[in-house]
Design brief:
Pfam family, one: AAA_21
Strand content: 15-25%
Number of helices: 6
Protein name: AAA family ATPase
GO molecular function: ATP binding; ATP hydrolysis activity
Strand order of the largest sheet: 1-2
Organism: Arachidicoccus ginsenosidivorans
């Protein structure tokens, strides 16, 4: 490809001796020597800070993929922070990390669920739209616990995994 170039990215780590004293630094190749989570955070950091600085929307599929749950939480909190998000940037993301429902302190209108029907079509709805006995879910509910218990739907149909494995092994 004309005009294309390859960039080697290096990270620098402290090097310690047997007595836990810093004795120097060592370089790591970002792509081959750092974790998948470090690479994911590096990859989204540019677009994330661009949007936080200039406003706009950042869409990330499976934000939690390869990230520690506390890193995922930290990223989402940047977008809910008045200090770091002065331009009303928005983060739209898909995740399977239910911890965010517990620790995230999101409003009910910020939480959406996607559920597939029996035909494979997806339906998306906000938690704020969900009604129980004709009433909106209270904001002090345990959203994570309720979700895992299936109260809001959007739970995958897993079926009997042992039957699936047996069928696969018989092929």
């Amino acid at each position: 490809m004309e005009g294309a170039f390859k960039m080697d990215i290096r990270t620098i780590h402290k090097k310690y001796n047997a007595k836990d004293k810093v004795v120097g630094k060592v370089e790591f190749d970002m792509r081959s020597q750092e974790s998948a989570g470090a690479n994911k955070l590096f990859n989204i950091s540019g677009p994330m800070f661009d949007v936080l600085n200039g406003g706009g929307v950042l869409v990330v599929d499976e934000l939690d993929d390869s990230l520690h749950p506390l890193l995922t939480l930290a990223v989402t909190k940047l977008f809910n922070s008045k200090e770091f998000n002065r331009n009303n940037a928005q983060l739209v993301f898909a995740t399977h990390d239910t911890n965010l429902l517990y620790y995230g302190n999101y409003r009910r209108d910020q939480i959406y669920f996607v559920e597939k029907d029996q035909y494979g079509a997806s339906d998306m709805y906000a938690l704020v739209e969900y009604k129980e006995e004709g009433k909106t879910i209270r904001k002090d509910r345990s959203f994570e616990k309720d979700y895992i218990e299936g109260r809001y739907g959007a739970i995958p149909f897993i079926g009997n995994l042992s039957n699936i494995v047996t069928e696969w092994q018989e092929k």
